[in-house]
Amino acid sequence: MFRYLSILIGIAVALPSPGFGAARNPGKPEVTGYVFARGNALTPGQVDAKYLTRINYAFANIKDGRIVLDAPADAQNLAQLTALRNTNPRLTVLVSVGGWLWSKNFSDIAVTSASRRLFDDSVMGFLAQYDLDGLDIDWEYPGLPGAGHPYRAEDKQNFTALLKELRSRFDAETRRTGRQLYLTVAMGAGDDVVAHTEMRKVARYVDTVNLMTYDYYEAGSDPTTGHHAPLFANPADPKKASSDETVRDYEKAGVPAEKILLGVPFYGRAWGEVANQNHGLFQQGKTVAGFNGQYSAIAANLLGQGFTRYWDDAAQAPYLYNAEKHIFVSYEDPESLAAKCKYVRVHKLGGVMFWEYFGDPEQKLLETIDEGLGGEGAKF
User: Would you call 273 a catalytic residue per the annotation?
Assistant: First the structure.
């Protein structure tokens, strides 16, 4: 997914009409979790799909115009994940292609009908080979450089064309086999991302739009501390950033609420050398070397151990501050997740997406999502 990838590497519905994505099990919220194996082999039982409706395996790459696996363990990992459908019949398993570091070839594969057809052919073979339920496109970002990737002005239209042609292929395969194939996209939270896409058209061809409603603040690029995944904007926030604003932006751009998955992070962000003012919130700060941002590590190693938890009622977001070490941490916890699940229900969104599974191995956050969306494990 995403910018977080660079940090981690460094530290049954009716068949859709052709051309239109269709939500699975209408009225039931999706819980999509990205599983990022980091090139490692998954151990048996390492992933428990009890609370999930969809797994997006991250990541496949693009080479010579085709979708490919990049690590030797990937094929085995996919087999282990698809086997989880035996215990959770609602589960679908998709592969996510691209991400923050592997989006460099998207502009080239989307540029012509011939290059798109080559990629589409490879996708169809890939899904059949690994018994997958579909594809998640994580192009970061059309018409924008992302992590320094090649891009073109015509990416805006080519992104739509790529999705339209994939949907056509998926629908044809579904008519042939009777098996639904799902097409989803991971989309960034910035106004510039929306401006460089045709989301009203895109929404016709995808089953869900997975909003990356996090990383609004990052220590590496933001010298000021802030909530990296606030539900609402704090009036004192210089950016006025929030998940709510992003959802509204995508709805205004033409994405139906029922196709939007609200993204939540299973990790936090930290700043050091933060002055003890306002408990460190919206203060100057610097990157903290060696910070383990996984929620499990934050809960085990920071909470109650020199770090005091504070709650921003306006933003509906928690944060930590260590007055002795002058360290500020923005993160997600059960209280903020419960508020977001309520938001999903009230605004009739399609569900929740999170990055990523191994940030919460004890499933404390997943249990909160399950309860907040009215689920009972796999029995939604």
Answer: no
